[in-house]
């Protein structure tokens, strides 16, 4: 099960994530967090996808290299990134990055100063925001 706990985000990212959620919800965009922190072992499993394991390549970050793997010096999970999804009114997930809901959700995140994974040059990561 993916870690979705906002308390496992970096202390600088927690308030931004909560503001992003609140501002999306004010615009009746049903956004929610699907992944916050991940362990280096989980990251290694994702890195294997499309390389030594089935699937397509979704990351160039090995365990410990992803912003999702960040911890505080005392070992507390403190992900510098979160992944999200958007639900339609009928309960299905909206993965149409070109839809008005996605455009608005991305604009809200950028206005809060977050970096959007859809702007990445190597592997486009549209459901990802991270600290600058
Ligand atoms: Zn991510």
- If classified by CATH, what would the architecture be? 2-Layer Sandwich
Which percent bin holds the helix content? Answer: 25-40%
Secondary structure tally, helices? 3
**SSE pattern, N- to C-terminal:** HEHEHEE
Structural descriptors:
Muramoyl-pentapeptide Carboxypeptidase, domain 2; 132 residues; EC 3.4.-.-; hydrolase; 4 strands; Peptidase_M15C; four-stranded antiparallel beta sheet; single chain; binds zinc ion; alpha+beta
Question: How would you portray this structure in words?
Answer:
The protein is of the alpha+beta class. It has a single domain, classed as Muramoyl-pentapeptide Carboxypeptidase, domain 2 (2-Layer Sandwich), CATH 3.30.1380. Helix content is 27%, strand content 14%. It is built from 3 helices and 4 strands; from the N terminus they run αβαβαββ. The chain has helices at 13-26, 40-48, 100-111; strands at residues 30-35, 81-87, 115-116, 128-130. α1 (13-26) runs antiparallel to α3. The model has no long low-confidence stretch (mean pLDDT 97). It binds zinc ion. Zinc ion (ZN) binds at residues 68, 81, 83, 125, 128. Zinc ion is lined by residues 68, 81, 83, 125, 128. It comes from Limnoglobus roseus.
């Amino acid at each position: 099960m993916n870690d979705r706990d906002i308390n496992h985000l970096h202390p600088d990212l927690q308030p931004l994530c909560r503001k992003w959620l609140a501002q999306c919800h004010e615009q009746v965009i049903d956004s929610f967090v699907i992944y916050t922190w991940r362990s280096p072992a989980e990251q290694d499993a994702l890195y294997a996808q499309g390389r030594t394991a089935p699937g397509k390549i979704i990351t160039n970050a090995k365990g410990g290299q992803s912003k999702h793997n960040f911890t505080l010096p005392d070992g507390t999970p403190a992900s510098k990134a979160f992944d999200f999804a958007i639900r339609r009114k009928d309960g299905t997930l909206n993965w149409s990055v070109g839809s008005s809901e996605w455009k608005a959700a991305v604009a809200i995140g950028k206005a809060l100063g977050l970096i959007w994974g859809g702007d990445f040059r190597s592997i486009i990561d549209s459901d990802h925001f991270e600290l600058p």
